[in-house]
Amino acid sequence: MRFFGLNMLPKAHTHIRKCNIFQLNFVKQYSTTLEPKEPVVLSKTIPGPKSTDLKTQLGAVQSTGTVQFFADYEKSTGNYIFDVDGNILLDVYTQISSVPLGYNHPRLLNLFKDDKNIKTLINRPALGVFPGKEWPEKLQSILMNIAPKGLNKITTMMCGSCSNENAFKSIFIWYQNKLRGSTAFTAEEMNSCMINMPPGAPNLSILSFKGAFHGRTLGALSTTHSKYIHKIDVPSFDWPIASFPQYKYPLEENIAENKKEDERCLGEVQSLIDLYNTKGKPVAGVIVEPIQSEGGDNEASPEFFRALQKICKKNGAALLIDEVQTGGGSTGKFWCHEHFNLEFPPDVVTFSKKLQLGGYFHSDDFVPKEPYRIFNTWMGDPGKIILLEEILKVINEEKLLENVNLAGKVLKDGLINLEKEFPHLLNSTRGRGTFLAVNCCNTKVRDLLVNTLKLHGVQTGGCGEISIRFRPALIFREHHANIVLDRFRTVLKTL
Ligand SMILES: Cc1ncc(COP(=O)(O)O)c(C=O)c1O
Question: Does residue 20 have a pLDDT over 50?
Answer without folding.
Answer: no
